[in-house]
Design the sequence.
């Protein structure tokens, strides 16, 4: 029997003692936490084994920062484009920005750090050709070319923390003061940061775990003048910039960064951009600084006898859990928001910490916990989606956040969370620290490699754009499947790391960091992959893999994939190969096809390509054998049970391991089988909320018919199936 208590953290709030006590007993919670905007009473703190207290390093300290406003955090912003109609033009730099959040930097000389660019030609204008009017917040440019467009890249102070702003708007906090973030790179801020924490640790003696939310720099997020998000990149380093940071960088790397290195033509170096060497250098520079300064705070926490936990969100930039310097911070734990299986694995796989914790959804906020809505629906979807990944690599704890008083108003939700907590404890007690069976090793190659493990194509916390859900489905499928996943950069491939994997996946839109963009102009890279596949490797391309127009090809690996994309240049060349095959290993279990956004004008390049799905003049699914190797092309793969099975079959086909598919496998795409050799157990898991009857196969491929209730897990001794 597993314990009915432990491994669960719940929120509470002041004046809610008795109900908190009841829910602690019902759910078996051993940890209590506060949330942004709540405080814990001392009596409540005595109810749990572990008390978490949220700690904001660089915000919620307005008394300090208002005395040192030159140390407010900054970023580079790009003005709206203005078309000149004469040889002069005026650019109002704050047009479209929210003055409650953004304030132009008037402390450092604009002509030294700001840039005016002719966006029609890309030419940087000499700083002598423009002046800035502080009163009007306007740049006046002379000597311009009529009917060209111009922009100003300018430094601005961030005078309202983006997360507090979001919570302020969402929860209608009214006249609550706006938190102003300060920059710990600055002299006074750095000293204040350490001194305040020392005092805080003394005053919060009942706190067991200091939950840093997070450290210093927020991901890039700024709003428009209607209080709507204007730009958000959960991976963006835009809010780490300051004149001192630029100066310190130049001393280390020997060259000076420009505004354009951050604004990046208006794309703000989003995670979808192929990163330049200059930007990668800057990211490394920030990661090293953040890790060093964070270690100072963590040491203070440890010296006080408390644990140090980092929330993977808000001000997480520079910590990079899969980066080179993360281990030097010395954290005890990381907690993050779990939106799906991909984010679960992103958290549970983090190295160099003693334990990980997942904050599950829904957040106990009024946008979900309101009259007429049933939060149990979201909770069930969240749990069943994430549970697939837990079966492969569990987090060590689960938890929830928000206002407990709101959640307690929904009895069905309260009862469902009790079941979730008990089921998690049972899973963890059975498989924690046990390697599950894997049949194939899969490598995912993109411009980020290991640094973005389990993070491709996401916006934040499992959110995605319409244009990328066809690719995020790849990670979501893999998060709960019997394969080992390795994240590779293009440099890793160049250095010979293809030998570590059976199958290589390249997925994404052309030009993005995930497809690879200009990396595919490297003939040596292409030759290495060609050789590896022809000598027996497996390749899966999804969307626009290896796409860059060059030398008569769009997909630079078209010879391996068997398909290319028509750009209009080869319309005069007939394309005869359109007939799909009647049957194939990949499609044996398919009842419906969903290629998401898909692609248009994909065609088979020769008769050696086996087309498996052809519709509206485009190939959506195809395979090819070349030399001793195999490839699979899929036009898009949004997550659903059928597509997860299609990907699993594609992986086994590409790896020449079709026979291994029906080992620890189910013929129902909604049911999966996980095997834990050292535990001598297997788990048959129903990922749907409906009853399912499936034929499941053991390690020898012997079938057995099982019926599972909605969401049920059946544990069996390994020899029983």
Sequence:
């Amino acid at each position: 029997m597993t314990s009915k208590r432990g491994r669960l953290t719940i929120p509470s709030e002041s004046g809610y003692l008795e109900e908190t006590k009841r829910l602690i007993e019902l759910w078996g919670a051993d940890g209590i936490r506060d949330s942004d905007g709540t405080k814990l009473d001392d009596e409540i703190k005595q109810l749990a084994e572990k008390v978490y207290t949220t700690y904001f390093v660089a915000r919620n300290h307005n008394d300090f920062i208002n005395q040192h406003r030159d140390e407010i955090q900054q970023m580079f912003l790009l003005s709206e484009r203005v078309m000149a109609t004469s040889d002069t033009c005026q650019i109002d730099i704050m047009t479209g920005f929210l003055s409650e959040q953004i304030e132009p930097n008037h402390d450092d000389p604009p002509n030294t750090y700001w840039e005016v660019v002719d966006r029609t030609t890309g030419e940087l204008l000499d700083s002598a050709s423009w002046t800035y009017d502080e009163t009007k917040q306007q740049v006046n440019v002379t000597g311009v070319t009529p009917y060209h467009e111009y922009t100003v890249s300018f430094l601005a102070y961030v005078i309202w923390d983006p997360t507090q702003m979001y919570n302020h708007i969402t929860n209608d906090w009214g006249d609550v003061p706006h938190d102003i973030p300060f920059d710990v790179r600055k002299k006074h801020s750095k000293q204040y940061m350490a001194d305040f924490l020392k005092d805080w640790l003394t005053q919060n003696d009942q706190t067991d775990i200091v939950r840093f939310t997070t450290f210093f720099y927020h991901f890039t997020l700024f709003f428009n003048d209607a209080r709507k998000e204007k730009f958000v990149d959960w991976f963006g380093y835009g809010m780490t910039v300051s004149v001192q940071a630029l100066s310190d960088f130049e001393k280390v790397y020997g060259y000076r960064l420009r505004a354009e290195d951050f604004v990046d033509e208006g794309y703000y170096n989003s995670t979808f951009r192929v990163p330049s060497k200059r930007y990668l250098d800057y990211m490394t520079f920030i990661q090293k600084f953040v890790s060093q300064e964070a270690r100072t705070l963590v040491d203070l926490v440890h010296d006080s006898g408390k644990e140090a936990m980092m929330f993977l969100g808000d001000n997480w930039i520079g910590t990079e859990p899969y980066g080179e310097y993360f281990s030097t911070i010395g954290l005890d734990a990381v907690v993050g928001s779990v939106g799906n299986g991909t984010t679960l694995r992103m958290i549970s796989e983090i190295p160099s910490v003693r334990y990980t914790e997942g904050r599950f959804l829904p957040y106990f906020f009024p946008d979900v916990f309101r009259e007429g809505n049933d939060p149990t629906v979201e909770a069930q979807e969240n749990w069943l989606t994430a549970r697939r990944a837990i079966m492969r690599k569990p987090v060590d704890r689960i938890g929830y956040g928000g206002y407990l008083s709101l959640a307690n108003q929904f009895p069905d939700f309260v009862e469902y969370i009790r079941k979730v907590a008990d089921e998690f404890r049972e899973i963890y007690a059975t498989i924690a620290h046990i390697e599950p069976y894997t049949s194939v090793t899969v490598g995912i190659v993109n411009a980020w490699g290991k640094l973005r493990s389990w993070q491709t194509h996401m916006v934040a916390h499992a959110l995605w754009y319409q244009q990328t859900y066809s690719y995020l489905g790849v990670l979501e499928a893999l998060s709960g499947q019997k394969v080992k996943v390795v994240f590779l950069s293009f440099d890793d491939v160049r250095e010979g790391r293809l030998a570590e994997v059976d199958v290589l996946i390249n997925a994404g839109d052309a030009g993005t960091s995930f497809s690879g963009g200009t990396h595919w102009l490297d003939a040596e890279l292409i030759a290495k992959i060609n050789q590896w596949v022809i000598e027996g490797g497996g390749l899966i391309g999804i969307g626009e893999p290896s796409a860059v127009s060059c030398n008569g090809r769009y997909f630079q690996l078209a010879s391996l994939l068997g398909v290319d994309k028509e750009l209009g240049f080869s319309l005069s060349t007939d394309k005869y190969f359109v007939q799909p095959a009647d049957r194939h290993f990949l499609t044996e279990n398919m009842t419906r096809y969903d290629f998401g956004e898909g692609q248009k004008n994909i065609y088979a390049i020769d008769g050696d390509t086996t087309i498996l799905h052809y519709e509206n003049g485009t190939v959506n699914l195809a395979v090819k054998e070349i030399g001793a190797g195999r490839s699979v092309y899929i036009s898009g793969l949004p997550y659903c049970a059928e597509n997860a099975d299609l990907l699993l079959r594609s992986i086994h086909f590409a790896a020449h391991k079709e026979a291994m598919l029906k080992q620890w496998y189910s013929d129902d795409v909604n049911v999966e089988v996980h095997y834990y050799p050292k535990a001598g157990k297997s788990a048959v898991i129903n990922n749907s909320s409906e009853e399912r009857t499936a034929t499941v196969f053991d390690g020898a491929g012997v079938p057995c018919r099982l019926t599972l209730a909605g969401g049920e897990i059946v544990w069996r001794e390994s020899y029983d199936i």
Q: What stands out?
A: The first strand starts at residue 8 and ends at 11. DSSP finds 18 helices and 36 strands in the chain.
